[in-house]
Amino acid sequence: MSRPDRTSRTEQEIDQNLKRVYEDVANQELPSRFTDLLEQLRAKDAAATQKDGENDS
Hints:
This protein is mainly alpha-helical. It has one domain (3-56). 86% of the residues lie in helices and 0% in strands. The chain has helices spanning 3-26, 32-56. The model has no long low-confidence stretch (mean pLDDT 87).
């Protein structure tokens, strides 16, 4: 086996393993602390948007 073939096969295996790991992580449920934080941020954003709308009147 030549060196380029070996490198190519190794790179393909690395690519496949990285994709597999990424898929596993991407499919995990978001921890509740993050969903809670997102809810808080959305509430602050909504309040700021509403306040800005009142100031425009």
